[in-house]
Amino acid sequence: MLFSEAAEYFAKIEAEASRLAMSAIVAELLGKCNQEEAKPLIYIIEGNIAPAYEGLDVGIGEKLAIRAISQVSGRVDAQVAADYKRSGDLGSTAEFFLSKRQQTSLSSSPNELLRVYATFLKISRMSGSGSQDSKISLLSELLNGATPLEAKYLVRFCLGKLRLGVGDPSIIDALSMTKHGDKKDKLILERAFNLCSDLGTVAEHYIAGKDLSHFSTQPFKPIRPALAERLPDAAQIVEKLGGKCAVEAKYDGLRMQIHLEGGKVEIYSRKLEKMTHMFPEITEAAAALKAKSAIFEGEALAYNVKEKKYYSFQETIQRKRKYGIEKMSADFPLRLFVFDIMFLDGKDLTLLPYSSRRKTLEKMTVNNPVLLPSVQIITDSPNKLEEFFQQSIAAGLEGIIAKDLTQPYVAGARKFAWIKLKKSYGAMADTIDAVIIGYYLGKGARQEFEFGGLLTAVLNDETNELESIAKIGSGFSEDEMRTFESMLDKIKMKKKPKGVVSKLTPDFWVKPKYVITVAADEITLSPMHTCGLVGETGYALRFPRMMSLRDDKGPNEATTTKEIISLFEIQRKRSA
Ligand code: ATP
Q1: Looking at 201-262, which runs of residues are DSSP E strands?
Q2: Ligand 1 atom, smallest distance to 422 CA
Q3: Nearest ligand 1 atom to alpha carbon 375
């Protein structure tokens, strides 16, 4: 397949607002490619060169792209830069200059999709001082053989700004449509994706006709994390879990997924980014385990050896900034409270019941000074659960997580296999994690900082849209205001970002990137916000205030509209 052909589909996708129609276009495009092309095509549609957890960039910045565009179109850099300033999109600028080109270079031939992908992969592996010229010349070669529309997408892609607006759920639907014309295989595809977080590999297997029902976990392919549901109280939790359940301390630490094989260790964050180098003591402890291979999960807390006390995630992060990684490891070593195990010595454990995974986990961590099993009781009594909850709160923890002993590891989903009960914030059963979609300028006393508050949204995971929920004007220290001002200034956007639904217009829109934890007095119904909109009324937060920036979550991990509706229900039941 030629990249120019894919580019025409990209333009159609971009012009489409309906999720279903987008999936149909992606399905048509996938139908045109051969088995080998499916995997790179999926990565490209996702806007990446590899699965997101690899964190690989093409590594071409705006300056290099401007140089390549000017070389190919016979302009000078300043002309290209001036047009970019006007258009705000270097892809459109490339399209414009290539359409004005007198003739294509005689030596150029059309770009095959696989060649484009291989070239970008090659560029991404180049480093060092001499690499810049090679990068420009490789990109120029691609642009030379490109149609103007193709050039637009090549440039956007290599800058990491393709943003077609197709989320992973839409790509999963599209894959199923290639075989059945509908979403018949959605669940089976979703399961495979949740177990490896690599949609390219899933597509490759699926299009080759392999049976995905036997898809299993593999070291160094992070598993999408299991998430907890909420219920109002202990009695309802015990009832929902059918009696006997495990009740565990809910640690307010940093979630880590540890992968181990052949002495190599990788640590993935909650949003599945590699963070191995930041935690040497956990890496060492994992490497020293007797297991040949393993995948397990836990919550890391810093331990103050002198005071025999654990620090929360926020305190741990602050200390890490202050102390640096090495000093921090020496004075406040991390301990990992391991709460699940998904793979051991070549065997996938995700389908086993929790009770049996827990036994394996306890055996693996026996007498380990760094990797400790999470504190747990087994009970069928709501009173015992409530007592354990109160003790946990008194000990400074966030609350408890109750777990169904019979359930498999439910990757990538918020299901009732885990149910959390947290200390309340006002009438709300939990804080929420909202995405910043815009900000306001300061008025009066705040003018000095040019920052007056945030417009935030939650994620509707059915439509993949961000729906506004709160305008937040309090909870910020002066330092935080300054930090926000400069952080958000860098990601300002001229127009409302695609996929954002809001009736309010902030002074500046920003690229949805940062997530903050927000507390509020209660969830209310309001005509101002679009979260869970029914008719003119949506859900909103009353007296919202910012608690902290949540570095370990991106927009895809934000609180969902469904969760807001369930929190609203819990609030209603509690006040009844
Ligand atoms: P929160 O904002 O409440 O931490 P979350 O959105 O990060 O929630 P949830 O699914 O709501 O994720 O709650 C589960 C989280 O609780 C896990 O992500 C994990 O980081 C943390 N956690 C702490 N202790 C445990 C435990 N014993 N078992 C499972 N998860 C635990």
Answers
A1: 227-230, 245-250, 254-261
A2: 3
A3: 27
- Average pLDDT of the chain? 92
Å from CA of 65 to ligand 1 middle: 42
Find the residues whose C-beta lies inside 6 A of ligand 1: 227-228, 248-251, 255, 270, 299, 339, 374, 401, 420, 433
The amino acid at residue 346 is: G
Residue 486, exposed/middle/buried by CB under 10 A (0-12, 13-18, 19+)?
exposed
C-alpha atoms less than 13 angstroms from C-alpha of 13 in its C-beta half-sphere: 26
Q: Are strands 508-510 and 492-493 parallel, antiparallel or unpaired?
A: antiparallel
DSSP reduced 3-state for 177: helix
User: Would you call 182 exposed, middle or buried from its count of C-beta atoms within 10 A (0-12, 13-18, 19+)?
Assistant: exposed
Please report the pLDDT score of residue 574 as a whole number: 80
Instruction: State whether CATH 3.40.50.10090 applies to domain 228-422.
Output: no
pTM for this predicted structure: 0.90
Task: List the catalytic residue out of 250, 403, 471, 553.
Answer: 250
Does 92 score more than 90 pLDDT? yes
Q: Which of 91, 76, 361, 327 is nearest to 246 (CA)?
A: 361
What average pLDDT does the segment 430-450 reach? 81
Question: Which superfamily does CATH assign the domain made up of 432-575 to?
Answer: Nucleic acid-binding proteins (2.40.50.140)
The yes-or-no answer to whether 228-422 and 432-575 have a common fold is no
Q: How far is the CA of 401 from the centre of ligand 1 (A)?
A: 8
CA-CA distance, 272 to 338, in Å (whole number)? 17
CA 487 to ligand 1 center in whole angstroms: 27
Q: Which single residue is written with the structure tokens 């306890």?
A: 362
Ligand 1 pocket: which of 224, 420, 517 to mutate (most atoms within 8 A of CB): 420
pLDDT over threshold 80, residue 448? no
Distances (CA, A) of 165 to 107, 168, 170, 340, 397: 35, 10, 10, 34, 39
Give residue 228 CA to ligand 1 midpoint distance, Å. 7
For the chain, give the number of residues: 576
Q: Which amino acid is at 567?
A: L
Clarify whether 244 is annotated catalytic: no
Residue range 366-371: mean pLDDT, rounded: 95
Q: With residue 266 as reference, give the H or E element that holds it.
A: strand 264-268
| pLDDT at residue 94 greater than cutoff 70 | yes
Which ligand 1 atom is nearest residue 250's CA?
24
Q: How far apart are CA 501 and CA 466, in angstroms?
A: 6
Mean pLDDT of 259-288: 94
**32: Cβ–Cβ under 8 A, 6 or more apart, which residues?**
1, 5
